[in-house]
Amino acid sequence: METYIIKVLNFLTKKGEVYKAEPPLDLKEAFSKFAGGENQMKKDQLLRFMVEHQGENNISTMEDLDKIVEKFLQLRNSCSSTKTSSTRIVDVYRKQGLSLNDFIDFLILDDFNGPLKDKVHHDMNAPLSHYFMYTGHNSYLTGNQLTSESSDEPIIEALKQGVRVIELDLWPSKSSNNDGIKVVHGRTFTTPVPVSKCLQSIKDYAFHKSDYPVILTLEDHLTPKHQDKFAKMATEIFGEMLYCPETDCLTEFPSPESLKKRIIISTKPPKEYQQSDSIRKPMPNGSEPSEEESWGPELPDSVAKLKTEDRNSSDEDQEDINTSDNKSNQQGVRQYKHLIAIHGGKSKGSMKNRLKDDVKVRRLSLSEKKLKSASESHGADLIRFTQRNILRVFPKGERVKSTNFRPYIGWLYGVQMVAFNMQGHGKSLRLMQGMFRANGGCGYVKKPEFLIRTLPHEEVFDPKKPPSRKQILKVKVYKGDGWRLDFSPTHFDRFSPPDFYTKVSIVGVPADCAKNKTRVKTDTWYPVWDEEFEFKLRVPELALLRIEVKDKDKGKDDFAGQTCLPLSELRHGFRSVPLYDRKGKKYKSVTLLMRFKLETLN
């Protein structure tokens, strides 16, 4: 009872609290240094700070700076409870410059001072195999892998987020609503969606976030007749967007730059059948086991029964093949084959044989289980294979709830397509989102050179034996702001302001992984931590910086925002770091003011 009364008294006395703590010493010293010890930082002094301290290469003239600062002042004024004429605010800045508080408010706005470059800056002229690609798994599912609905909405959302690889599972359909072809997770209770609806949405949203190519990986369970129908449908809907290679014997993949605004199809090429009376069950074409097949022993009895029923209905669909003209079938297969730009390869035999490099480049698919096993016994072969070819890794069948595995199991071995359930929100998906904030968020991230090139003496990179420490990352967490605007007054605690702390960690090769956290700042919406952490790094090129803020409670601490940043892309100096909710949606106001500094060791 006594604790309850104290909390109520605290709530009543601090309900209107807007007090902000004293600015961190580093910020005051930087302001004083560039302002020449004065109380106001003039325009020319601010320009020198931006260039010398922040390393801003895109701000070279006073005109460049004026546009940014004037926009900031007008924006801040529009958010203020006491409105002032925008013209008057700009006049004050031009004559007097910025005060210390103006200076700090300017730094904490991520619109002007974010932690990453917002433009594409990697070399985009290398073969596709040289890039990590933002990849979806069963992109049409709205929820779990067994009973959820199939829809084009998850595809649209993924494309809006910058996902570049979309997966569709194609099955024959007798329904008049499905154009003869449906998209569905086969042998489950998931509902279908017409393939034409998915293709039209892909066309409409493919380049909403990025101009770089969208790749469709097809899990093909179609008959030759339906393959012909799909080929005509894709050609009609996509038109000139659809990339059709001049040859089916590619010895090197084209570059993302050369494929801008193009849609690419990737699947196992079909065989051209010689006998029209041989019944072909609509299983995935070729000998590569499908993801649906991998579900077999992992599904409950009710779904196993459904599998048998599905096979029976599939046999009924063969009626069209038996009565169709053989030449027509072969012509349809050839047209379908012509659309396939990235060929899926065989996955039979030993892992050594599967990863054997060939003259022609191809794509190979493995489950996360198979990849984990291969990484332990054939790590070097994986990296050599992914230097020229494309490897796709998909979640194991047990992930019925659409959860995801840790993506580093793929990235450390050069895997380009780490296929994720985009509806499976959690820590793994946050790492994926963090990786693809790199390179302007275009969905393609150039792999480090050590994953692309063979080292001297024909050696390749070994994640288990990384080089000695070569860099130190210094991360300083100064302060946070914006929770009071984005959360209700009682969201974290009914009777007092929150007790925030920040967790900072590195995720990468095992030798680089480390965690730290700040002290808890009690009873404040405006925490100032002013704490620095050092991380010694061996492979910074593959490291991600995870940041999460929590509110300390007696039970489970409350979530208060998170982000994940590619370490190699961090902009040095004082930076405003916007935070996101659990699903990766950016908060309107919540930001941290931090400093990043990367030092190279001799």
Automatic annotation (TrEMBL):
Region (Disordered): 261-333
Enzyme class per UniProt: hydrolase
Bilayer topology term: Peripheral membrane protein
Composition-biased stretches (Basic and acidic residues): 304-314
Biased composition regions of type Polar residues, renumbered to the chain: 323-333
Any GO BP annotation: lipid catabolic process
Domain C2 residue range list: 454-581
Cellular component, GO annotation: plasma membrane
Keyword Heme applies: no
Compartments, record wording: Cell membrane
Keywords carried by this UniProt record: Cell membrane, Hydrolase, Lipid degradation, Lipid metabolism, Membrane, Transducer
Pfam families: C2, PI-PLC-X, PI-PLC-Y
Catalysed reactions listed for this entry: a 1,2-diacyl-sn-glycero-3-phospho-(1D-myo-inositol-4,5-bisphosphate) + H2O = 1D-myo-inositol 1,4,5-trisphosphate + a 1,2-diacyl-sn-glycerol + H(+)
Annotated SMART domains: C2 (SM00239), PLCXc (SM00148), PLCYc (SM00149)
Record's keyword annotation contains GTP-binding: no
Protein name from the UniProt record: Phosphoinositide phospholipase C
